[in-house]
Write a structure and sequence with these properties.
about 220 residues, mainly alpha, three-stranded antiparallel β-sheet, elongated
């Protein structure tokens, strides 16, 4: 919600504790079911753009959990995860500024750089080169860091699915969709990296056979 509508920041309100300045956290401008985009346009809260923004925000929260465990184990991913969280804020600015109905400085200010995609690819290649080749479907496993990175991967895939129609219609820059696509790959490789660093067991699926009672296989990375 945009700041400044309703009771203005700095105005006082009566409370049980006397007169206190109104918090800027809430503005009451969304009480009628709409929210404001960066270009000032107001849309219903169920608009596709807000679905996309909300899912990317959820992704950022998931990364925060993964970051906590990665930092505790010292697996080297924590600084990358913080960098990604910051990039997601920039990505959300692009989503919140419809490319087909915005012009001028706001459009230029919210461009999402292709270099962000290339950095993810560099990180992926560096980690993947040190991991065993994939021959089976990996199950979310490998310790707390890895599991929460897998969870972030799943949320990222959902964000990509929601953002894709906005990219196709010209509302969001194509680089945003590319970034989310690479980001889910990053989380997959990062989860395997974390499991290997921490000496954890990786679970993977293998098709069940008559001579094999289970399709669960475990191995050390």
């Amino acid at each position: 919600n945009s700041v400044g509508s309703g009771v203005g920041v700095g105005r006082s309100r009566s409370t049980n504790f006397g007169w206190l300045p109104k918090s800027s956290v809430y503005t009451r401008t969304g009480d009628k079911g709409t929210s404001s985009l960066y270009n000032g346009e107001r849309r219903p809260k169920y608009d596709d753009t807000f679905h996309a923004l909300g899912t990317v925000d959820e992704l950022n929260s998931s990364i925060g959990i993964a970051h906590h465990y990665c930092k505790e184990t010292g697996n080297g991913l924590d600084s990358k995860l913080v960098e990604i969280q910051c990039k997601l804020i920039e990505l959300m600015s692009n989503i919140a500024t419809p490319r087909n109905s915005t012009d001028g400085r706001r459009l230029e200010y919210t461009v999402f750089d292709q270099e962000n995609v290339r950095l993810l690819e560099l990180w992926i290649d560096e980690m993947d080169a040190k991991l065993p080749p994939l021959k089976h479907f990996i199950l979310p496993s490998g310790g707390e860091s890895a599991i929460f990175l897998h969870q972030a991967r799943s949320v990222c895939r959902r964000a990509e699915r929601i953002v894709s129609p906005l990219v196709e219609s010209g509302v969001v820059d194509s680089e945003v969709g590319q970034y989310l696509n690479r980001l889910s790959d990053f989380f997959f490789v990062a989860a395997r990296h974390a499991a290997k660093f921490e000496g954890q067991i990786e679970n993977y699926y293998e098709q069940r056979r008559k001579d094999k009672p289970s399709n669960l296989v475990t191995r050390e990375l």
